[in-house]
Amino acid sequence: MIAMTAAQVAAATGGRLRPADLDPSTVVTGPVVVDSRLAGPGALFVALPGEHVDGHDYAAAAVRAGATLVLATRELTDDGSGDGAPVPLPVVVVDDVERALGELARVVLEQLREAAVEPGGSGLRVIGVTGSVGKTTTKDLLAQLCTVAGPTVAPEKSFNNEIGLPLTVLRADEQTRFLVLEMGASGIGHLDYLTDIAPPDVAVVLVVGHAHLEGFGGIEAVARAKSELVTGLAPGGVAVLNADDHRVLAMAELAPGPVATFGTTTGADVRAVDLRVDRAGRAAFTLDAGRVPPVEGETSRERADVTLRLVGEHHVHNALAAAAAGLVVGLSLADVAAGLSAADAISPHRMHVVERPDGVTVVDDSYNANPDSMRAALRALAVLAGRERRSVAVLGEMMELGPDARAQHEAIGLQVVRLNVGLTVVVGEGARGIAAGAVREGSWGDEVVVVDDVDAAAELLGSELRPGDVVLLKASNGAGLWRLGDLLTGVPAEVQP
What we know:
The chain is α/β, with parallel strands linked by helices. β14 (238-242), α10 and β15 (259-263) form a beta-alpha-beta unit.
């Protein structure tokens, strides 16, 4: 975070300095953290309440580790200081810590934007990415493209909510040229809140799909919620929309400024042509682009070849979205194509492919799942396995689907059979509909196995897998299948998404 005094933090958050004799000129020079284990010299520790732990209980540890200031809802003391006498901690007391964190990020970003337009400023551009699927991958691709062109800040893992987004914003400083933000929503108004903190200069909308339907209540509500990123654009901002999704393309009518489109359709401003997928499941295509945002009367287009290192044809749209956003912020087509071809999957448990020494290929896509991403992952599994290798799908529950959950899981079971998956392991009670759908489609015998939990799945696979198998792991994060992913790929057990 940019250096701020205690008085400035209090002003930004509407808080009060405590104790009363706390020096208001005390300067926060380090990062903003919500985990006391990450606190260091000059840090600001944000004492968030949680379901299982309360950050207020760890404030003293954060200060002992070097934190300069604590954001909290009450005055705090260190009762374990050594001599038995409680020592007041340096605190900015606020009514709501989470809201205060968002306000701090909003104020800091405003200051950075003001500095960015001054002579010698960074020219900061804020890029927001949303969609039912593909947000994290697109964010990762964009971050890798932008990093080549200038100092870039992007979320760690999937920091895309009311806590993760402000923390990402607060990592930016006066040198930051690109701030790439992933923006998630599980209900109406969520993106309004995030764009109030960080109005994007470029708003990328990927797909309106069947994620979090329980919170939204229907697909049209999902579209309405995703459109909040477009209506939340900063003045002069550009909407980057998926021309292949009619609900996304319709958001052009809501855009307050220019619109650029991407997709495989002929009319897209940035599109993929001559698309092909190799036996390793990696897509290659020709990137064909006109000027973005488009200018009336401009007809010239450029082309460059792209070969993705990511597994799965569905990543083509993620790459096109990143390309369009990169072009909008001034990257050349040649640099975008080269960057996409060099980009890796950098967030864990997202189509992470590991070739094990025993000849088993593991495709760990266990971080999250909804019907759209589940189908895409299964198609990628079928391509990877081909006709020579056995495909094994280890599938857990797709959560937050509401009353259609059973039918959505059964539909995945139908696809498993139609793709001729050799072995399907259904993990957990919430995913049993997958097995029912597979049986209804004609799967018999031992092609589909239902197990109670992740431990049972691990035991089964330990005896069942053989050289040449291609194994896909896919479920919502809450199903815990990522633990099996770590086990099968050799990631230390303490590493979590």
